[in-house]
Amino acid sequence: MKSIEGSRQGLFIGGRRVAPLSGRYIASYDPTTAEPWYEVADAGAEDVDAAVRSAQAAFVDPAWRRMTQTDRGKLVRRLADLLLQHADDLARIETRDNGKLLREMLAQLRAMPDAYLYFAGMADKLQGDTIPVNKLDMLNLTLREPVGVVGMITPWNSPLMLLTGTLAPCLAIGNTVVIKPSEHTSASTLALAEIIMEAGFPAGVVNVVTGNGATAGEALTRHPGLAKIVFTGSTATGKRIAANAASQLVPCQMELGGKSPHVVFADVDLDRAVNGVVAGVFAAAGQTCIAGSRCFVEAGIYDRFVDSLVDRTRRIRIGHPENDDTEIGPLALSAQLEKVEGYVGSGVAEGARIAVGGHRPQQGELGRGWYYEPTVLVDARNDMGFMRDEIFGPVVGVVPFRDEAELIGLANDTRYGLAAGIWTQNIDRALRFARNVDAGTVWINTYRSAAYMSPNGGFKESGYGRRGGFEVMREFSRLKNVVVDY
Ligand code: NAD
């Protein structure tokens, strides 16, 4: 894989790198130093149009359109093999771009090819039905077919992993794709496009347009040539994209923000629950959509729980994401750091108290990067700003509750509905919570364990549509009815 440091990365259209017609480039920053480390093309509307046209041409090209399902599955399998070979290089690129821990990115990207294998196996499993009708000499069939060009817009927090749940099934189904990665983390997606060509996919099946959301992203989501849009990112951007897509009657899948409740009952093993809450909110410096950032604790153990949470949080090692012993790295963007500081400040102004954290660490190298201490806010209320909005940083608010009725009211008092977690030994109570909470995924005595075999997605303002499992194969194919009178 070619070195990215100091390079100028072009777009990927029609199977090759091209310079942007816009002539514009933007810098991508290393969050540990706040210095730029490469430049990426800032595509304009003409570039986006070229990418969509390339995907449209590939969609009807017999090299792709007439490829058998078995051969498509084999291609996706070959891609999985190559992704495993390149996993460590891709992990290093993502860590450099978004500051997430290298050991986590290595684990994530070494596991990612398994998801491609899973969907490769589905390429020849998508089938229609024969449906009886009120006439004997009539054959009434359904066919499942690819939808066309799918536009995919991704965020910066896990660029390749978040693409997998829709890209792998789209390739297995026979769709073609235009990807617009985040302007902050484009390099790994461009590298992926090259690996896709190396695997032997026809040119134009996967195209990448990089650039700002307001320009490249807007142009893609307003383009009439798309059959479907997949968006992973913030709720505010999701609403805008859904409106653009609606103007063209293009359906969307939306994976948006979260403000997930993480619940602890008095009957738990305290250390296990504290570790679960810590990992649930501080992983990736809090920059995960499923972060359990509202922690509700049964009143009887509230003080003990908070003491233990504060003690555990104080011992979290902040450091360079490439060091083996680092537990929390920097935030990916300077704007993100300011946002976190703003919410902690407003929480304190509203009456919450910082039990631990609440500063930018200044010692040594840390002072240069976009680091923020993991922070626990107590004396919090569910109606405070930092408990209502997604912060996307290492901040958790802790609130006591008296009983299940109060708990479910608090847990559901949010406009989001992505995930929820509960720690208790009482299985009846856990299942009652799972049934009553508004969340697309519920974890009982665990948190953050997601699998590509499961249907993942949100309720309420966390989005709609599901990725993972066989469901996604249906979402990205279309159903046609064929009637034969014989
Ligand atoms: P963002 O919404 O700012 O940007 C996401 C993507 O949208 C980027 O590629 C950006 O360039 C593009 N974009 C921005 N404005 C656009 C516009 N007007 N038109 C088209 N595209 C536009 O989000 P972010 O800051 O990159 O990522 C963090 C957010 O992503 C958080 O809210 C997080 O919860 C969410 N997220 C959700 C999931 C999930 O699966 N539900 C997963 C990861 C992240």
Automatic annotation (TrEMBL):
PROSITE patterns named in the record: ALDEHYDE_DEHYDR_CYS, ALDEHYDE_DEHYDR_GLU
EC id: 1.2.1.3
Superkingdom assignment: Bacteria
Residues making up the signal peptide according to the UniProt record: none
Keywords: Oxidoreductase
GO molecular function: aldehyde dehydrogenase (NAD+) activity
Residues annotated as the enzyme's active site: E255
Keyword check for Oxidoreductase: yes
Ranges of residues in domain Aldehyde dehydrogenase: 24-482
InterPro entries registered for this protein in UniProt: Ald_DH/histidinol_DH (IPR016161), Ald_DH_C (IPR016163), Ald_DH_CS_CYS (IPR016160), Ald_DH_CS_GLU (IPR029510), Ald_DH_N (IPR016162), Aldehyde_DH_dom (IPR015590)
Family classification: Belongs to the aldehyde dehydrogenase family.
Protein known as: Aldehyde dehydrogenase (NAD+)
Source species: Inquilinus ginsengisoli
